[in-house]
Design a protein that fits this description.
The protein is of the alpha/beta class. Helices cover about 45% and strands about 15% of the residues. It has 17 helices and 14 strands. The strands form 3 sheets. The chain has a 6-stranded parallel β-sheet, with helices on both faces. Strands 6-5-4-7-8 form a 5-stranded parallel β-sheet, with helices on both faces. A 3-stranded antiparallel β-sheet has the order 2-3-14, with no helix packed on it. Helix 5 runs parallel beside helix 7. The protein is globular and about 85 Å long. One of its GO terms (biological process) is L-histidine biosynthetic process. InterPro entries: Ald_DH/histidinol_DH, Histidinol_DH_CS, Histidinol_DH_monofunct, Hstdl_DH. Belongs to the histidinol dehydrogenase family. Its cofactor is Zn(2+).
């Protein structure tokens, strides 16, 4: 089921992955802009009208009350709630280690300079609705913001046919510490978070996945607010040695393929025999999956296998692809981790499948796609902070270094800059 690639085809694969970011057509952007403009002009009235139009729900209030939240949570499976509580502990444990400290540097002549690390004031988290519900994403987006010190975290999620939110989403939001929840989806939710309405105050940054209209709206409001990313289809790349269990490899490739017909699943190995065994397992395991049709489309179009002469060659090729998820399914994986330069998140060993990180392990599952791991990072505490520098020069320091500053300003023909120094040197 995996398509074997020769050297020439490998180069095409690298190019394909890097060029398949979520493309948004002009038509979609125009429609999203129309929705944004409607929300900017009509505010809450637009939100109620658009919710009725797109979700077929008449709402009397956008905000989820505490009573409604508790009513939804009461429907949750206790075992699910326990698992989520344990996952929260792991995610907090990992992200607390990401916190940065401010610093102060001192030099001669009473010169001191430094940096302050400050949390964003407010963040909006978009949570998809519809058939899919991803409470794990609520934890992954909210917890780093809480650890960073964000004071106001707002969540929007589309209502169901009864005008309610999904119980699991409700529990995840309360567990993670979301401050405000609104029953609102689509581009209109992004517009409300960016520009504000009577009911919803604007935020400084918007994070979270969504459909193509949500992605388009995030792209359009960027600049008014910050956003996390415009994510493309998901990817997994498994580097496996000859000792890897083909059942494990196949299961992990399928775990990504079930997301989307555009999801990309790649096996790079030193063992031709393993490729054959994995293909047999893919046929066997995919046959019983509820999302078999999606899986088969994904693997037929974007499932690939590559055989290399060494694990070092496997990793070099992986670095060119810069996958969202990279599994090092090899003996002694820590010995090879240092060679990995470009990957959203790395999963080490035969038993650390991507699913561990997606839900429970503690690392974040919001990751750069489409080869952007070459220059982008996973969502984390850094995503919810800003850094502000400060500087102090005494009179003595300015007298000592003023001539050099004046010279640099004059060379750039910015005489007023130079004058700001000269007037102080005369005193």
């Amino acid at each position: 089921m995996l398509q074997p690639l020769n050297k020439q085809e490998q180069a095409k694969l690298v190019q394909f992955v890097s060029e398949r970011s979520q493309e948004i057509s002009a038509d979609i952007l125009i429609k999203a802009q129309e929705i944004i403009d409607q929300v900017k002009e009509q505010k809450d009235d637009a939100l109620f009208a658009l919710t009725k139009r797109f979700d077929q729900v008449d709402l009397s209030s956008l905000k989820v009350s505490e009573e409604e939240l508790d009513e939804a949570i009461a429907q949750c499976d206790p075992a699910f709630k326990k698992a989520m509580e344990m996952a929260k502990e792991n995610i907090e444990f990992y992200h607390k280690a990401q916190k940065q400290n401010s610093f102060l540097l001192e030099k001669e002549e009473k010169i001191y300079l430094g940096q302050r690390v400050l949390p964003l004031d407010s963040v909006g988290i978009y949570v998809p609705g519809g058939r899919a519900q991803y409470p794990s994403s609520v934890l992954m987006n909210t917890i780093p913001a809480k650890v960073a010190g964000v004071k106001r975290i707002v969540m929007t999620t589309p209502p169901n046919a009864e005008g309610k939110i999904h119980p699991n989403i409700a529990f995840a939001a309360k567990l993670a510490g979301v401050d405000e929840i609104y029953k609102l989806g689509g581009a209109q939710a992004i517009a409300a978070l960016a520009y504000g309405t009577q009911s919803i105050l604007p935020v400084d940054k918007i994070v979270g996945p969504g459909n193509i209209f949500v992605a388009a709206a995030k792209k359009l409001v960027f600049g008014k607010v910050d956003i996390d990313m415009i994510a493309g289809p998901s990817e997994i790349l498994v580097i496996a040695d000859g000792k890897a269990d083909p059942k494990f490899v196949a299961a992990d490739l399928l775990s990504q393929a079930e997301h989307d017909p555009m999801a990309c699943s790649i096996l790079i190995t030193t063992s031709p025999k393993l490729v054959d065994q994995v293909n047999q397992e893919l046929e066997k395991q995919s046959a019983v999956l509820p999302k078999r049709e999606i899986v088969e489309q994904s693997l037929a179009n974007h499932g690939h296998s590559i055989v290399c002469d060494s694990l070092e060659e496997c990793i070099s090729l992986s670095n060119l692809i810069a996958p969202e998820h990279l599994e090092l399914m090899v003996e002694s994986p820590m010995e090879y981790l240092g060679q990995v330069k470009h990957a959203g998140s790395v999963f080490l060993g035969y038993y650390t499948c991507e699913s561990v990180g997606d839900y429970f392990g503690g690392t974040n599952h919001v990751l750069p796609t489409s080869g952007t791991a070459r220059f982008s990072s996973a969502l984390g505490v850094d995503s919810f902070i800003k850094k502000s520098s400060y500087l102090h020069y005494s009179k003595e320091a300015l007298q000592k270094y003023g001539e050099q500053i004046v010279k640099m300003a004059q060379e750039e023909q910015l005489d007023a800059h130079a004058q700001a120094i000269l007037v102080r040197m005369d005193t």
